[in-house]
User: What shape does this take?
Amino acid sequence: MTGPALHLSGVVLPEGVHRDVWVRDGRITFEPVPGAETVSRGGFLLPGLVDAHCHVGIGRGGVHVADLEGLRAQALVERDAGVLALRDCGSPVDTRVLDEHEDLPRIIRAGRHLAAPRRYVPDLAIELEPAELADQVRVQARRGDGWVKLVGDWIDRGVGDLAPEWPADAVAAAIAAAHEEGARVTAHTFGTDALPGLIRAGIDCIEHGTGLTEDLVGEMAARGTAVVPTLVNVQNFPEFAAAGEQRFPAYASTMRRLYASSGAVVRAAYEAGVPVFAGTDAGGGVDHGLIADEVRALHAAGLPAEAAVAAASWRAREWLGLPCIEEGAPADLVVYATDPRADLDSLQRPQRLVLRGRVVG
Ligand SMILES: [Zn+2]
Assistant: This one.
């Protein structure tokens, strides 16, 4: 790999130390590189942001976006918001072609959503009977980039409320199958009832997690199970409630209750020691490019500002196996004018973006 020789200087996070950083052949070095072009001076250098719950290939209202320009447009909006890596939490579209585009964020895929028949957004998931789940998990584990995505609960129209999608034994077999394949597992859950089975079966992460209780966050903390609260999507819960009100009043009232407690749930998880990461759930109901809003929402819920920033940068990168600003690491970094730990609004305005050792913004 080649690339221009670059030089940046500023306060490097999370250490908080002023450093000179060079880029040579796409990689970071702290050894001066003769002839390097200075592309940034001053400000705060962060390891490239991460949107830990994002969907590339899903457009507004759940439509499939399969054309290259449409996929690129979604990824570019994320990049320009400072997101240089995203965890794609399930896409109906094969986005592999984007891996050849060096100007786009790195994508860590979870394959397709796996749901029970008629128990998710129409046409988004592979719909399966419980007995088929573990085998399909193996297929998705091999297609993805180390993650598999289950739909853990959804409205059960027979019950008229949120309900688990899978019996506990099917979930346990599925999670064991993924782990055998070397993949981690995450699950969409809004309510509470699906959570004990998922957490006790050793799931690696919970998406949304609005139904978490004090007991469950204690168990997650002990196991190291992460949560990605997607608070910018939880803000849509009152709308989901209103849309379901007439036919499913119990569901509507559940969604309103979960919305009302969502901030307290995130705070309780954080305080218990559960790893909390920033994900927007962009694609479908949420626009791309809102990572700064999610960080602000995590802070408003009770994470200290530094922890909220870490949840979208160095902590998330570490969790996903991506290096930070260190000798020899691929040069993926974002520069802000002021310290985002003291001024979260700074995240709204990246001053400089370096991705794979090239200036892209
Ligand atoms: Zn999602």
